[in-house]
Amino acid sequence: MTYRMLSHHCRSALAGAAIALLLSATAGVAQDVPSVFAGADPSAMVAEGKMWIYPTGGDGLQAWSTTDRRNWKKDPLLRLRDIRWTEADGAPVHYLWAPDMVLDRGRYYFYYSIGPQNPTPSRLGVAVCSSPAGPCTDSGKPLLTGGDGFEAIDPTVFIDPKSGRRLLYAGGSAGAKLRVFELAPNMVTIAREVPVEQPPHFTEGAFVHERNGIYYLSYSHGRWNRSDYSVHYATASSPIGPWQYRGAILTADAKYKGPGHHSFVRDPKTGEWLIVYHRWEGQTGDGPYAGERRVAIQPIRYDASGLIQPVKMSD
């Protein structure tokens, strides 16, 4: 059984940040929750006996995999030069960020954001992959194009275990608008848009998971490079709402700033639910921060009624 998870967000100014593996934390290192590697917008899933994380990259996007959450392997997945349809838009430079991988009926589909957002509108693309580590072949055309105040960014796909509907969630940032679309069975075209209400405090980076019949819509709030960046969530009895706002899951503290653009995944060995997110380390004040963000993984807890308990990044 495969549990897939996501989202989302990097501004173009930092989209080229290099992703470098961090050596495992050793005894005596005063860090409450060791981060894993440099990166942002981590989408996580479990497949083929491994945990996979797909973060924002630079010229291309990569797949990071592990069997023990200590030792990680990086595989190149999709490069800008593989996306030929961008050559016709006239933009001198493009950026890739906030990807998401999903498994459907034995095939892997890789969704991603591509910019710039000016003078061309932001767009989403999709590639078909032969495995969670690739290789991937782009569909050859944009999946969704932004405009009229909507930014086509931060894709995440949720396949409803009850109805089988394949739902694409996207949008946010400056327009702070969430839109939901039902994908066609081929997973590379949109069948229709699904009207949804806007969740409270939504900025970007939506993610959906289901547990015991409860649907959880979680997302980032605030400015990506400031201390108010945080993860909030709402619940519903369906994957499209109506949503009941439940509060914040992750917020900045004295040590770690701006946690956000997260995904949820279940440990394949223990069944424990985990949140995978990025944060700023070694920063002070409220921002704006500069440099690189780091990916971290922490367990989450649900109470008896299914509500998610806030995550403490430090003591």
TrEMBL record:
Highest taxon, organism lineage: Bacteria
Q: Does the keyword Protease apply?
A: no
Q: Does the keyword Signal apply?
A: yes
For this UniProt record, give its keywords in alphabetical order, as a comma-separated list. Carbohydrate metabolism, Glycosidase, Hydrolase, Polysaccharide degradation, Signal, Xylan degradation
According to the record, the signal peptide region is 1-30
Listed Pfam families: Glyco_hydro_43
Assigned protein family: Belongs to the glycosyl hydrolase 43 family.
PANTHER family on file: ENDO-1,4-BETA-XYLANASE, PUTATIVE (AFU_ORTHOLOGUE AFUA_2G04480)-RELATED
Q: What is this protein called?
A: Family 43 glycosylhydrolase
